[in-house]
């Protein structure tokens, strides 16, 4: 409510509180290439459109005369950790194309707002520098997973992340190659192959990758940056998928919670339980990977019914406002990852812009629950009993 109170005291926000305006305002500040990359989605955009449309199929039914001591408690317990808020910054790569301060600004804002920051393998800042910016904030590491022949590079990344205080490992399963994204193809744009090397910060600072490169090419990375960038891109987007059996390798080398990101089917969710990972993210990568898919919110209840009592089900793809977060939690998600909105904040105001977006989402969520008579974001108060389906 801090945000709301300041609004009432006529302190102007750095930019609008209207969440659906952030996208086009960010567009006015960005080059066509980078804007196309951020808003872009796969194919005809069907999956991305369905992600958004799905939220309006559910409605929150407010209850009256629910006497409470104060504002709702937004804290959650996820991956064995108690956290004050039910959102996290989704892993988003190449943040220096959004703002020169990139991940440093975003991670600092997330820490300040007590929201976990999930760092991407495709970051434009090294693991160690993101850790420094994140300070004592909660930070998790997202892996784009090299093939088994490069297990030593994977181990090196995991060791670095662990040493730098990243406590959980998110493994993204839906992006062993980038999706069919017409906006980037129209622009002839791939952020990883840019001459300023924004997408390869982790590779360029990785001792194991560097020695691989030297062995293969007979020279240092600095002597042939183009080859190094191409090599790293092939390493983390190898064009082929792992199998569920390979997860064992990660479990042996990562002491801490492992979360598989990109789950959309009940069958896969059940396999995740069998292999003993701690969590999944029901996500379709914001509709950026496969076209013609389900909305991520649409598949959430089925997956929660099948595995929700056996591992932590997290959710992303399409969250834009407080009510969206409330609906995903009511359908059984433990936490929501927010992708594009905080990136628009980064474009519009750097660290302060990311803070503004996170605080707006949380303030909006808090009042949405409060005015619906829902006392907390925990499942005993926020569950399917607060929702009706519009077409029922
Ligand atoms: C992403 N996403 C993503 N995911 C991931 O696991 N690693 C990554 O490096 C990236 N990079 C990335 C870049 C950009 C520009 C976007 C928009 C997204 C996907 C992200 O983590 C998340 O799944 C979606 O963004 C969620 O959808 P919304 O919130 O953007 O609708």
From TrEMBL:
FMN binds at residues 91-93, 120, 142, 172, 261, 283, 316-320, 339-340. The active site is at 285 (proton acceptor). It holds the Pfam family FMN_dh. It comes from the Eukaryota. Its cofactor is FMN. The keyword Oxidoreductase applies. One of its GO terms (molecular function) is oxidoreductase activity. SUPFAM superfamilies: FMN-linked oxidoreductases (SSF51395). Residues 11-390 form the FMN hydroxy acid dehydrogenase domain. The keyword Iron-sulfur does not apply. Glyoxylate binds at residues 37, 144, 181, 285, 288. Keywords: Flavoprotein, FMN, Oxidoreductase. Belongs to the FMN-dependent alpha-hydroxy acid dehydrogenase family. PANTHER family: FMN-DEPENDENT ALPHA-HYDROXY ACID DEHYDROGENASE PB1A11.03, S -2-HYDROXY-ACID OXIDASE-RELATED. This is Uu.00g086040.m01.CDS01.
